[in-house]
Amino acid sequence: MADFKMFNQEIRERSGKRVGKIFNQEIRNGSNSTIAKVFNQEIRDRSGKCLGKVFNQEIRDASNRKIATVSEARKQIDGSDILDPIYVAALWFCFVRRGL
Fold first, then answer.
1. What ranges make up the beta strands (E) of 1-100?
2. pLDDT value of residue 1
3. Distances from the Cα of 33 to the Cαs of 7, 26, 67, 70, 89, in angstroms?
4. Does position 31 have pLDDT exceeding 70, yes or no?
5. pTM for this model (two decimals)
6. Across the beta sheet with 26-29, what order do the strands follow?
7. Is pLDDT at 30 greater than 80 in this prediction?
8. CA 17/CA 40 separation, integer angstroms
9. How does pLDDT run across 50-80, given as a tens digit for each residue?
10. What are phi and psi of 83, to 5 degrees?
11. How far is CA 42 from CA 1, 13, 49, 51, in A?
């Protein structure tokens, strides 16, 4: 069972607590602060440093190594099937992997 689920543009813990949301091209945390931005097929932190990217349904880190696939990330976030793969990867980086 996945630890997180999507409700509209919000990501929630299994208990229902809102932990973040997608707003325009930004990923925001529960207190509405920007923690990551999506730029083309890259995920960047708030300072602009590249965290990772999506390439051929693979999630890659900043040094271009494969760390997961989009389908693996979707399994960890219920309801993310309708999201663009780059947003799935960004949510995965921010909340599942907890890279920020």
1. 4-7, 10-13, 18-23, 26-29, 34-39, 42-45, 50-55, 58-61, 66-69, 77-78
2. 64
3. 19, 10, 26, 25, 19
4. yes
5. 0.91
6. 66-69, 58-61, 50-55, 42-45, 34-39, 26-29, 18-23, 10-13, 4-7, 77-78
7. yes
8. 30
9. 999 999 999 999 999 999 999 999 999 999 9
10. -80, 150
11. 28, 25, 10, 8
What span, in angstroms and rounded, lies between the C-alpha atoms of 14 and 23? Answer: 21
The encoded tokens of residue 28 equal 């925001």
More confident position, 9 or 98: 9
The alpha-helical segments, DSSP class H, found in the chain are 70-76, 85-91
16-22 long-range Cβ contacts below 8 angstroms, 24+ apart: 19/95, 20/91, 20/94, 20/95, 22/83, 22/87, 22/90, 22/91
Sign of CA dihedral 41, 49, 32, 74: positive
Give pLDDT, residue 99: 46
Query: What's the confidence (pLDDT) of residue 3?
Result: 86
